[in-house]
Specification:
This protein is mainly beta. Helices cover 13% and strands 33% of the residues.
Amino acid sequence: MNTANTYPDAINPAMVGEYDAHCFSGSGYFYDQVLEYRVWCHPERGAEDIYQGDDYFYAFATFAEALAYSQQTAGAETPLVLIRQYEYINEPSPGVFEHCHGDRITEWQPQWLAGSKREPDSIARFLQQPPI
């Protein structure tokens, strides 16, 4: 498993915290950019209640910062990573894969970053031998 220092930093630290809270969750198999790391906080689990019971997140430029915050904050989840995809794989039904183009932002588990940085031929290679 990766340590906190092996995950890529946000591509543009000045933009960390500026991305919309509403985004896709998971999927796509490949990423183009790491935008930020998010730690979601839940008042019902002991996080400070600053939004009348609603969940909220703090954004960080590095996984290490996000992990440290999550470990010391009551009601905080483990970090997620916000990524941008310019090309990705859609799986509309099990074992059916589609190569998609378009700017999409989604939250991932950080461990999914390992080996998933999209290269020019990543999707073509994936589609030749999908994991079914």
